[in-house]
Amino acid sequence: MESHVLARAIVYIFLLFMQVPVEVMSRNASSVKLQVVNIGALFTANSVIGRSVKPSIMAAVDDVNFDSGILQGRQLNLIIRDTNCSGFLGTIEALQLMVNDVVAAVGPQSSGIAHVISHVVNELHVPLLSFGATDPTLSALQFPYFLRTTHSDYFQMQAIADLVEFYKWREVIAIFVDDDYGRSGISALGDALAKNRASISYKAAFTPGAPTSDINDLLVRVDLMESRVYVVHVNPDTGLRVFDVAKHLGMMSNGYVWIATDWLCSFMDSSETMDSEKMDLLQGVVALRHYTPDTDLKKSFSSRWKQIKDKESLNFNSYALYAYDSIWLLARALDVLLSEGENISFSYDPKLKDTKGSSLHLSTLRTFDQGDKLLQILTTMNFTGRSGQIKFDLERNLIHPAYEILNIGGTGSRRIGYWSNHSGLSITTPETSYMKHANVSTKDPQLYDVIWPGETIKVPRGWVFPNNGKPLQIAVPYRVTYKEFVTKDKGPVGVKGYCIDVFEAAVDLLPYPVPRTYILYGNGQRNPSFSDLVYDVSQHKFDAVVGDVTIVTNRTRIVDFTQPFMESGLVVVVPVKKVKSSAWAFLKPFSWEMWCVTGAFFLFVGSVVWILEHRTNEEFRGSPRQQLITVFWFSFSTMFFSHRENTVSTLGRLVLILWLFVVLIINSSYTASLTSILTVQQLSSQIEGIDSLVSKNVPIGVQDGSFALNYLIDELHVAVSMIKILKTQDDYLEELLKGPDGGGIAAIVDELPYIQLFLSTVNCKFRIVGQEFTRSGWGFAFQRDSPLAVDLSTAILQLSENGDLQRIHDKWLSKDACSAQSNQIDDNRLSLNCFWGLFLICGIACFVSLTVVLRAPLVVLASRSLSTRKRPRLRTCLDERVAIAGVVIATAGSKPPKVQTCSSAHLPQM
């Protein structure tokens, strides 16, 4: 009996010495107040991150235990388990750790192990604070007890995507280790690039621990591809082998771009010095590093690091800071939990029991009763640690994710900028952007210059033509009409035309060769559908289209076009003929009502002025006949502002000045209208543009294969039955000459370059009416995100600037085109037919006047039949009258002299 009691006492003392809580042999919750709180740590000790994290975690535990103001006088008991960088061993170590009734675990560093362990901690309600598992998928709701105390790779990949956009690259090749960490990170990179219209052209994955030969084979395949921008996302322990192989293959030279995620800086920061051979592998590499502010707390940690003995790493990386802050985060949360009166207790889970014959001892695992409460407290903590502010957002990610962007060169690295989720790329520290209001627009992203591989500061193009020898498969429309633009040729190239010459000239300006093969698209019997051709390019049946392809909205959604090399737009062509000018065209400016009213007002105003003036103005007096003549003369002379009668009354002057203003307006309007009628070319067609064409609902012709067909139907809602497809240029001429009444068409809707060629061959029988109602151009189409489209756009602009584009145009398309202004001078020249009516009126007036004047000689001849006695006197009087008339004529415009005339008594009686 005594030995049994003694044995029980020894067991109790042993358990107390081992600081293991006494289990109450029941399935009820244990509520024994503990003086020691067990916490666990999971990491791979023999790794770049593990060698930096282990001393940091142990130092943090010592600092917490040294602080008597925390944990209500309790102590942290750290239990470390080595995961050995193995998913299986890591899971076993995690289970063994949970047997020790830990309230939380710090780690692991591996995302793959974190995925497995998260299922364990979910069951046992033990929070898992990971300082190194950056897999974005671990933030899923599936793992509520997983809490990341570092930044997710989601943000790091956003930074790389912004970097790719900053340098205007469109495709990258991802080189990564094929595990949870690598796959999830690259998946996040693909999503981030897609937001910036970039993409991953190839995913080059290799297995964890792959031999160097496998990496060599992988990079050989990569080097044959188009993209020269490589994103390396591997672990820091084996990542340098990638650069070693790349250096051996000549892939660290001019034209290549290497971007490394934070693993590379972690490796470099953990080493006191990098030997020259390793640095030689990394020249020109751009790398990312977690940004941690240079605070006093960080500096104190650096001083503390130097005092740590038996550490395997002389320097520390950013993961050491996150691990240190993870311990303090857990300690502060436990302090809050205990200060609220909570006791740490564990319970048996009835679901965790060994099946029959099982030796796993699952029943030794117990659930942490306060796990939910502790997790809630952890997510609401807010304090400043060695790595910066420790606070979680609604998605349980650390706030203010930020990275430094480093350029490796020489014997070290230099910072070229920062990235944060608040300001993007910048040369200012993230703290500066945090101080700004979120709605304040930031400036354009900026970075300092980079020394790229090959020791050049010129930004690499990011791609080259593939080295696998496969030429570009270029589709060329096999045209039936307008072969000047592109057509089949018997030469070695196989095609010729204006578009081909432009493309060849642009390719010659590129700084690299572009092997290419032209493939005719179509059967040669009718023009192919250009929309179908563009669609085939988008489906990767061809690499590009070279021809007269119009850049329209629907096509730009599926392919990329170059800069337009020819302006184009839809126009309307109709048959026309000149309208003969009328001999009475001078009457057309006014309607007959206007003529009548204008004449009446001339007489009315003359009468009003006579009434106002004749009582006081001698010029408006005289015999009734003279006054009537004066009224008529004054009225119509105001039309030419040539009236000679003066107005002396105030009312007369007022009426006259107002009437002269009216006459000025009438004269100006008449002149302008008559000029327009006689000088502007008149066309017989009643179609004046696209609006009148559509409204008349007449047959319309369009070129076979042109986008004009869909435009008329979809945009202008023209009935399909009113559209006729024209397959040849002869169809253009024949259908227009027939006209709608003869079963032909009223007009053609086609692009301006085609119409200019057509009009040059029809001797100006047709004309363009109205303006271009679409504005577009012709470009070369390439597959989506093809960098060749950008380079060729630059080459086309260069051709335009140096005049080569115009010379090619003159070679193929320089013909005498018939346009609306071709015979402008001849058409505006007025003929006699326009004015013979005026000349007729003037001639009749002159004839009548001469008839009246010539009556005087007839009277003289008649008087010779009179008696001889009275003849001399008659002659004398007649001579006097003729003399007086001559004086009057000679002195016209001045006051006539007084002349002695014969009285009526001297004249013979008739």
From TrEMBL:
Residues 473-815 form the Ionotropic glutamate receptor C-terminal domain. Gene3D superfamilies: 1.10.287.70, 3.40.50.2300, Periplasmic binding protein-like II. Its main location: membrane. The keyword Translocase does not apply. GO terms for cellular component: membrane. The chain crosses the membrane at residues 590-612, 624-642, 654-678, 835-861. Disulfide bonds join 764-818. It is a multi-pass membrane protein. The keyword Plastid does not apply. GO terms for biological process: cellular response to oxygen-containing compound; response to wounding; signal transduction. Pfam families: ANF_receptor, Lig_chan, Lig_chan-Glu_bd. CDD domains: GluR_Plant, PBP1_GABAb_receptor_plant. Residues 1-26 form the signal peptide. This is Glutamate receptor. Keywords: Disulfide bond, Glycoprotein, Ion channel, Ion transport, Ligand-gated ion channel, Membrane, Receptor, Signal, Transmembrane, Transmembrane helix, Transport.
